[in-house]
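Supplementary Note 3. Input sequence used for the single-chain structure prediction.
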Amino acid sequence: MGKTPAGQTRERIYRFMREQLQGGVAPTVREVQEHFGFRAVQTAREHLERLVEEGRLDKSAGRARSYRLPGVAPMTMVPVLGRVPAGPVDLAVEELEGYVPIEGRTDADELFALRIHGESMRDLGILDGDLAIVRKQSTARNGDVVVALVGDEATVKTFMRHKRRIVLQPANDAFQPIVPDPNELLLLGVVVEIRRSL
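The predicted structure, written as discrete structure tokens, is reproduced below.
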């Protein structure tokens, strides 16, 4: 990159950051470095820190994608998993499809997203192709929509406990409830939000 006055470069960085953040993407310092062709990541960091000092950007401590527009709730990039593998969600790296931005949730570090396949939850408004935002947890209350692993198959259903028996209830009469063997059931999380692209 040729020599440009620092103020002009900083203005270009601000415009880039504003455009990316408004589009739901929080660039890392390294991505800013690469976009503007800086030789050192420190150059990008110094420009971003000056924008914070000027009050044009805010920064959340301890996050890789920490910059945001002032007055906008902190944003976290949550992993989108194509399908949940037979194992802990944290080990699902090879199934990673990308990331989705989540704003203003204090539990964002405990979230993952999962693409819905099928029509079994249609009557609750959860449709094929929707993106379910899921909070990782191994317990659920009656009526919670959960992501559960039954054997080696993942499913999204309504959790119901009847005495000592657990029933995973679909929201579509064309599908039968699942009554899993307790030894075959692993709750991966509770659905907290559904997103749909038109």
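The chain has three helices and ten strands. The mean pLDDT is 83.
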